[in-house]
Specification:
Length: 310
């Protein structure tokens, strides 16, 4: 019996050590970041494509001028409520972070302290972004107005508040490859980069499994809003039957072919896509028409059951 107990203790210790190693943060190697110099002017376009202001502006902030990324917006999900942090270039924000720390936060979901970030922050999409683009984005962030607002803690219950467990989530669900692997034109490839990486469109328009992983088999086919406020629409050709020109026009003006105006979170998206070049909006449209048509799937148990249209 003593030998059996000793063996069980040793086995548990070994298993715990392996689990600890497997769930460790995986930052970008320093060699890949060496020599990167960001360009703030180029970074402004990356900032718009990535939609940073949509989440990190303070609630109800509609002031003109350069955005103040003070944070504070709340995002309600089945796992808890996540609060966007201050990412302005102040000591309360990210002003004291190095460029490498910022890039690792954006692309790998790793904090300067070596903790995992929740995938409510879409590093799961930004992990496909070009490192030069991220360096340019960081350079632009440093030009924006600082805010002294303190970042508020997330309201996440046990067991989801165990940060280390996110390492296991990453092992199961993080995907650093593009979803659409078809033979694409250069324009469609640019659109894929804007949609799947910088624009992180799949985060809202793709259904999730009960643990919050994206169901890439139903890519962009629509998903319940995490807060339970209706349904984010299907934007594959099975659901979005607009022409490329109509998609481009909506991304620039917010007007749909039905002479309606997009609202809610999509209005925030249009504020960003309207700042892109004509070529980039056209590339997004070309990609969306190249995505395989998928009928909107029924929600999986535990992922929400709202079916109201956006």
């Amino acid at each position: 019996m003593r030998r059996a107990l000793t063996a069980l203790v040793l086995l548990a210790a070994v298993g715990g050590g392996v689990a600890w190693w497997l769930t460790a943060p995986d930052p970008i190697p320093e060699s890949e970041l060496a020599g990167l110099t960001g360009d703030a002017t180029r970074g402004q376009a990356v900032f718009a494509a990535a939609g940073c202001a949509s989440c990190h502006l303070a609630p109800e902030d509609e002031s003109a001028g350069p955005p103040v990324l003070a944070g504070g917006q709340r995002f309600v999900t089945q796992f808890g409520t996540f609060v966007a942090p201050n990412i302005s270039p102040s000591p309360q924000g990210v002003g004291n972070w190095t460029d490498a720390q910022l890039i690792n936060a954006i692309a790998r979901g790793v904090s300067p302290e070596g903790q995992h970030y929740y995938p409510a922050f879409p590093w799961t999409a930004y992990n496909k972004a070009d490192l030069q683009d991220l360096a340019d984005l960081v350079a632009h962030l440093r030009t924006l107005p600082p805010s002294e607002a303190e970042s508020l803690p997330h309201e996440v219950p046990f067991p989801f508040n165990i940060r280390r467990s996110l390492g296991g989530w990453k092992l199961l669900f993080e995907n650093r490859d593009f979803v659409l692997q078809a033979d694409l034109t250069p324009e469609q490839e640019r659109g894929r980069y804007l949609v799947e990486a910088l624009g992180h469109c799949g985060e809202c328009h793709t259904p999730r499994n009960p643990l919050g992983g994206l169901r890439t088999d139903a890519w962009l086919s629509g998903a319940p809003d995490p807060a339970g406020d209706g349904q984010n629409p299907n934007i594959t050709p099975a659901g979005l039957q607009w022409s490329e020109g109509e998609i481009v026009a909506m991304l620039q003006s917010g007007f749909t072919p039905e002479f309606d105006v997009v609202g809610g979170e999509m209005a925030e998206v249009v504020r960003n896509t309207s700042q892109l070049s004509d070529a980039d909006r056209q590339a997004i449209a070309a990609y969306l028409k190249a995505v395989p048509p998928i009928e909107s799937p029924a929600p999986e148990p535990g992922t929400g059951d709202s079916t109201a249209e956006e």
